[in-house]
Specification:
Number of helices: 11
Largest sheet: 8 strands, mixed
Radius of gyration: 42 Å
Mean pLDDT: 85
Low-confidence stretches: 347-352
Distance between the termini: 101 Å
Oligomer: single chain
């Protein structure tokens, strides 16, 4: 077998469609099996443009003149399925007559795979964005249930070690007549009122560096001095208490329901930890919380009551008056003070 015959046999065997056309009239000189399988057998005397009509005549002319390769992707629909071919036309040199070599590769599967990869990539990006949004929602939810420092510990270790804080201050607010109001009012109105008020309280608490721990029905509990120590924890909760009442007074001027609240302050030790396994809730308990809870009962509406031991921490910034000694259930006798608006109110970024 001659070299020419071997080359022809190789061209017929490979998976690339190959055709040879004369440069002068683009008529076929040779074509292999894959070429005819894809584009049909060229009729005698037919030209390349008759079989591949989408080839640019100008580009073909440039190939003849410059010898540069012309590459293009063509879409052909022999039956129902659209096939994509990468077609390259080059000029053969060193021959007695100029001929063009036409190479065709079926890249349909490659383009389909690329399309699938792009589709999967888009889906992965979309899912990643969804996961990020879900992560942010979970983080915001957990930050509503626990202080950020506690959340960071929980996120890192999966647990929160109970911590005893020797000296913290607590403010507890309870509305007067809330039970009657809730019983006579549409629940959506009640919820809207509480949501409005507690949202304002949250801003106040944040303004003074305190942490809102929880709301229990109409009761609102916030602390200062935990989880991060704060030297002025007593004045911080007192400022919150005063601002709570000021906000209610101003709100009552323009709203039909006039809210009245009692506030108790407490100071002492407290333990903070995440309670529960399936439903996580950061909670605080201990003497400081108990004192605040007990003392709010002894406060007149729109008044703040604190233990006498907080007097020297508050006396420079608040008006303090003695209430005398009171026997408190479970705690014995305790000297109480009444706390009213500060002598020098700090200027926050917003007024309430």
């Amino acid at each position: 077998m001659s070299i020419l015959a071997i080359n022809e046999q190789l061209l017929r065997a490979i998976g690339v469609g190959v055709a040879v056309v004369r440069a002068s009239d683009l008529q076929f000189v040779f074509y292999n099996g894959p070429f005819t399988e894809w584009f049909g057998t060229p009729e005698k005397g037919s030209a390349l443009s008759d079989v591949l009509s989408d080839l640019d005549p100008k580009e073909l002319e440039d190939v003849k003149q410059s010898g540069l390769r012309y590459s293009v992707e063509l879409q052909i629909k022999p039956k129902r399925r659209t096939l994509i071919f990468a077609v390259t036309v080059s000029l053969a040199s060193g021959l007695s007559e100029q001929v063009l070599i036409v190479e065709c590769q079926n890249i349909t599967r490659i383009r389909e795979l690329e399309s699938m990869i792009d589709s999967y990539s888009t889906m992965v990006e979309r899912n990643t964005r969804e996961l990020e949004r879900e992560k942010e929602r979970v983080e915001r939810l957990l930050l509503n249930l626990m202080p950020r420092a506690v959340y960071e510990e929980f996120k890192t270790f999966g647990v929160v070690t109970p911590q005893l804080y020797q000296q913290v201050s607590v403010v507890m607010l309870d509305f007067v007549g809330f039970t009657d109001f809730a019983a006579k009012t549409d629940p959506t109105v009640t919820l809207s009122e509480l949501n409005d008020i507690f949202t304002a309280f949250d801003r106040i608490v944040e303004q003074f560096g305190c942490e809102r721990i929880k709301t229990i029905g109409d009761a609102y509990l916030a602390v200062s001095g935990m989880p991060d120590p704060t030297p002025d924890h007593a004045t911080a909760v007192a400022h919150c208490a005063v601002r709570f009442l000021r906000y209610l007074e101003r709100r009552n001027e323009s709203h039909p329901h006039k809210w009245q609240a009692r506030i108790g302050l407490g100071m002492g030790a407290a333990v903070g930890s995440v309670v529960g396994i399936q439903k996580y809730v950061y909670d605080v308990f201990g003497p400081a919380v108990n004192i605040a809870s007990r003392l709010q009962v002894f406060a007149n509406p729109m008044n703040i009551v604190a233990p006498e031991e907080m007097k020297y921490a508050l006396i420079d910034e608040f008006q303090v008056s003695e209430l005398g000694c009171v026997d408190i259930k479970g705690m014995g006798e305790m000297d109480l003070i009444n706390v009213t608006s500060g002598l020098s109110m700090p200027q926050g970024s917003r007024s309430f």
